UniProtKB/TrEMBL annotation:
Cofactor(s) essential for the protein: Zn(2+)
Family classification: Belongs to the peptidase M3 family.
Name used for this protein in its record: Peptidase M3
Cofactor note: Binds 1 zinc ion.
Organism from which the protein derives: Methylobacterium platani
InterPro entries tied to this protein: M3A_DCP, MetalloPept_cat_dom_sf, Neurolysin/TOP_dom2, Pept_M3A_M3B, Pept_M3A_M3B_dom
Length: 686
């Protein structure tokens, strides 16, 4: 993407269609100054399309109303998908300024559509008679979308709903930009062997590469990219530096000044609670979970409570063993959160003879990409062909054509794997285009974005096993988008219930842990030799090591999320840190463990509404994925063709053709229990 443009240069978004390979955005020709006029034109076009639908003198039918709504807005979808993908993965001050301007405007535009009384009258008048099953599902989703936006409210309440939506868009944008600013601003410079003590060669190489990218020659820096900060906390033997790094990591979004997110959190919670009340719900959590597989906040809380007690007990036992190890080391101070990862790695080495530095050479990024591709080939018959000459928004982005077993093109997959200052933290899947057949055979363009640390000079990126799991997780989401097989855009790909969307991603992680996959793809980056059987055995034997910690840090975040959005105090104003502390006190949070996401940097729930009151979804989906993988075990083949075909038909390819319970039952023949989940995490009673 270009940083500047000539004032009179043609705007690529004015072109009716792009002639690039696969219709990719022509990133090299798009400059930040193109976006606002492109949004202006696309919004005006969409408004005209909506007015024509709402004002149609013909009686409302599925074709002239709902199908027309599905066809409308193509220009706006094109500019929005391009723009918002870049604001997450490769932003700059110019794009951030545009984002602040357009986010509330897009929210007001959406409100104007779903609060339009003439449009709602037409949508609500359409009967099911004569519709196909897919059309009935589309009708149902549109009616629900209008109702949840406030279509049935009075004029005054509608006006307030629109104002709330616009303000929430502003707040979510600012939250995300503040967090990126905090993450980009921090570097911990390491000088001398005392400050590098304990860091293995791969981590020193990554820290040197990070320093070089910041103009620091022959130096080492640790950034707040998870792929650098977490291994530093694992390996550094300098306790005071671990504490400094940990403090910066845990205090993102609460450092005072312009990037402090606490006031944003308070206002966001107040507005969400007000909106829920206007719609007749007792809380925002009740509103959000009404359209999920769980169905209610009580069901989600029940699952979290079922897991919390055994997870906390296990974490406390882990803590005692780590404290004993620290004492052996001469540490008289109580175990602190910045000590946990360090001593957990030491204990894993002792109990399982397993060292992260021993594992990583067998998990080069390229090998793990091929492992994910090969798994998709063996399950679904897909093949991947890398493309060299295609537009890309950053030189490091890679592109593959994806074909079905019969050679038919399925879509395009982009991989953006490395951390950089212009990219927000985390890992995610998104799309530049979704699959649909309403306007022709439209194939998807799907992207996975990661934040892996680069290798040293002339060395490949080496992944931890957790990194490799993240790669498989996000590729599971990518397959959910690539394999989508629906007619209508509203049903495509990952447009499913929030607590069902993690099933395809978390289920895909299971194949990484299978000896059959690791024997084929876990190969030393220098010699090409497969991972030794003894190391493979030790790696898999340690799968549930430290699971008390992992489950507690996640579950605590999910509980605080629900507590925040169930609170009756939200409309009157919540102090986010005091509220967080009280929630953690109530559940007996071990002091040596912090939430995976503290409230001021909890991007999942405050940088937009994606997982708001829905962070529990990972655990809910884990109930499903643990049970779903058992279907392959029961078939006696982890690549069983019949089971894989059902999985593709009812889960990966089905989009939102069915509600989540029906989709899972169609695949598995029944709904799951929590037993497989507890066994997977090592939390089941002996």
């Amino acid at each position: 993407m270009r940083g500047v443009t000539a004032e009179h240069e043609p705007n690529p978004f004015s072109e009716p269609a792009w002639t690039t390979p696969h219709g990719l955005p022509p990133f090299e020709r798009i400059a930040p100054s193109h976006y606002e006029p492109a949004f202006e034109r696309a919004l005006a076009q969409h408004v005209a399309e909506i007015e024509a639908i709402a004002g149609n003198p013909e009686p409302p039918t599925f074709a002239n109303t709902i199908e027309a709504l599905e066809r409308a807005g193509q220009a706006l979808r094109r500019v929005s998908s391009t723009f918002f993908n870049l604001t997450g993965s490769h932003t700059n001050p110019e794009l951030q300024a545009v984002e602040r301007a357009v986010a509330p405007r897009l929210a007001r535009h959406g409100s104007a559509i779903y609060l339009n009384p003439d449009l709602w009258a037409r949508v609500s008048a359409i009967a099911e008679d004569g519709l196909s099953d897919e059309e009935k599902r589309v009708r149902e989703r549109y009616r629900l979308r209008f109702r949840r936006a406030g279509a049935e409210l009075d004029a005054e309440a509608k006006e307030r709903m629109a104002a709330i939506a616009a303000r929430l868009a502003e707040l979510g944008t600012q939250f995300s930009q503040n967090l990126l600013a905090d993450e980009s601003a921090f570097t911990l410079e390491l000088s001398g062997e005392d400050e590098l003590a304990g860091l293995p060669p791969f981590l020193r190489a990554s820290a040197a590469r990070a320093a070089e990218e910041r103009g620091l020659k022959d130096r080492h820096v640790v950034t707040l990219s998870r792929s650098l900060i977490e291994p530093f906390l694992v390996f550094s033997t300098n306790r005071s530096l671990r504490e400094r790094a940990y403090a910066a990591w845990i205090r993102r979004g609460e450092n005072g000044g312009d990037t402090d997110n606490r006031a944003i959190v308070t206002e966001t919670l107040r507005l969400r609670a007000e909106r829920a009340r206007l719609l007749g719900y007792p809380s925002y959590a009740a509103f959000r979970l009404d359209d999920t597989m769980a169905g209610s906040a009580e069901a989600a809380v029940g699952l979290l409570e079922e897991v919390w007690a055994p997870a906390r007990a296990r974490a406390e036992a882990e803590r005692d063993r780590l404290q004993a190890l620290a004492r052996e080391d001469g540490q008289t101070a109580p175990l602190a959160p910045w000590d946990w990862r360090h001593y957990a790695e030491r204990l894993r080495r002792r109990e399982h003879a397993l060292d992260e530095g021993e594992i990583k050479p067998y998990l080069p990024l390229e090998g793990m990409i091929q492992a994910a591709f090969d798994t998709a080939h063996r399950l679904f018959g897909l093949s991947f062909t890398e493309l060299a000459d295609v537009p890309r928004y950053h030189p490091e982005v890679r592109a593959w054509e994806v074909a079905d077993r019969d050679g038919r093109l399925i879509g395009l997959f982009l991989g953006d794997y490395f951390a950089r200052a212009s990219k927000r933290s985390g890992a995610w899947m998104s799309g530049f285009r979704s699959q649909e057949r309403l306007t022709g055979e439209v194939t998807p363009i799907i992207v996975n974005v990661m934040n892996f640390a680069k290798g040293g000079d002339d060395e490949p990126a080496l992944l931890s096993f957790d990194d490799a799991r993240t790669l498989f997780h996000e590729f599971g989401h990518a397959l959910h988008g690539l394999l989508s097989n629906v007619t209508y855009p509203i049903l495509a790909g990952t447009a499913v219930a929030g607590d069902f969307v993690e099933l395809p991603s978390q289920l895909y992680e299971h194949w990484l842990e299978q000896p059959e996959v690791l024997r084929s793809h876990a190969r030393h980056y220098r010699t090409g030799e497969p991972m030794p059987e003894d190391l493979l055995r030790r790696l898999l034997a340690a799968r549930t090591f430290n699971q008390g910690f992992a489950t507690v840090e996640y579950t605590a975040s999910a509980i605080v999320d629900l507590d925040l959005h169930l609170s009756g105090e939200a409309e009157s104003g919540i102090d986010p840190l005091a509220f967080e502390a009280e929630s953690l006190r109530r559940i007996g949070m071990p002091g040596e463990i912090a939430m995976r996401h503290r409230t001021p940097h909890f991007q999942h729930i405050f940088a937009g509404e994606g997982y708001a009151a829905g962070y529990y979804s990972y655990l809910w989906s884990e109930v499903l994925d643990a049970d779903a993988f058992d279907a392959f075990r029961e078939a006696g083949n982890i690549f069983d063709p019949a089971t894989a075909e059902r999985l593709r038909t009812y889960v990966y390819g089905a989009g939102n053709l069915r509600d989540a319970r029906s989709a899972y039952t169609a695949f598995r023949g029944r709904l799951p229990s929590t037993g497989p989940l507890l066994r997977k995490r090592g939390l089941a009673a002996a």
